[in-house]
Amino acid sequence: MRIGVLTSGGDCPGLNAVIRSVVHRAVVDHGDEVIGFHDGWKGLLEADYRKLDLDAVAGILARGGTILGSSRVQPAHLRDGVERARGHVADLGLDAIIPIGGEGTLKAANLLAQAGLPIVGVPKTIDNDIASTDVTFGFDTAVGVATEALDRLKTTAESHQRVMVVEVMGRHTGWIALHSGMAAGAHAIVVPERPFDIDELTAIVGERFSAGKRFAIVVVAEGAKPKPGSMAFEERGKDIYGHERFAGIGNLLAVELENRLGKEARPVILGHVQRGGTPTAYDRVLATRFGWHAVEAAHRGEFGMLTALRGTDIVMVPLAEATSTLKTVPAERYDEAQTVL
Ligand code: F6P
């Protein structure tokens, strides 16, 4: 078989572990040939690629980022995107393409699969919001980074009797905020799934200080919004790919809480540090398993599917199903977090 692999969308720790696993399983165990497209779908659309052999993937298991590069270019953004992809797949004699990506990438993968291309997807995102899989690799690493940051911020917050408003990633869902907030014992967790009431949030933080505590930690997902009319809030619109760019809810909340409470508040935007660096052991294992199973699915001719974790098993799920909805934080998970605040 000749297999093409690519990484697309925002990077995330564990991408290299998938690439390595695909190459090991395909080349060593099946005698396949593997090529890697550069910079996501862009590489497929421009036939920009390199051969991936065992030497090419040596030493990358624990490395963050992606050796192939990534971009947010999607075939659907180009008028002839699908036909260009089809042409290059035929010219290169590819029997399977393994795109590794999040929501946008998997939608593109589904589009190409519907057009008859031999696609086996692998889900990735630190946001953990792909509905068809219990967990995506990268999430565990991001939660670990955010939790360590929260632990560290507690000590400086206490020294200065401050409110720390820590903004974590999570455009549409609050999984990183929920898990890091629970792990670090944050005093309030604010997620996009549940628009917040600024009066309630101020009361929660205020009661802490009234009870004699010297600091408060608020974790807020970047996509969180106040209840309409609850406080001044303006979204900034879309970036060049149509993704929302946020007004900076961490900054806004810190200013609002400081003014309302008369306590110093500082915003801390963790940003891309959550996506950088070495993946945790959990993420390396999940990524490696996804890569292995993607190659197996390709050999079985199971196209138009993606790898998914269900319980402790890796299963194959139709791409169409995987891209139809996002996995949001359910109300009961949020309530569990509230009781430990
Ligand atoms: O989807 C993953 C993610 O890290 C989001 O949490 C975040 O909103 C977005 O990517 C940031 O994207 P970019 O790297 O394009 O700034």
UniProtKB/TrEMBL annotation:
Its main location: cytoplasm. The record marks 104 as: Important for substrate specificity. Residues 2-297 form the Phosphofructokinase domain. Its EC number is 2.7.1.11. Mg(2+) binds at residue 103. SUPFAM superfamilies: Phosphofructokinase. Keywords: ATP-binding, Cytoplasm, Glycolysis, Kinase, Magnesium, Metal-binding, Nucleotide-binding, Transferase. The active site is at residue 127. Pathway: Carbohydrate degradation; glycolysis; D-glyceraldehyde 3-phosphate and glycerone phosphate from D-glucose: step 3/4. It is found in: Cytoplasm. Substrate binds at residues 125-127, 162, 169-171, 222, 266, 272-275. ATP binds at residues 10, 72-73, 102-105. It catalyses: beta-D-fructose 6-phosphate + ATP = beta-D-fructose 1,6-bisphosphate + ADP + H(+). Homodimer or homotetramer. Belongs to the phosphofructokinase type A (PFKA) family. Mixed-substrate PFK group III subfamily. This is ATP-dependent 6-phosphofructokinase. It comes from Streptomyces virginiae (Streptomyces cinnamonensis).
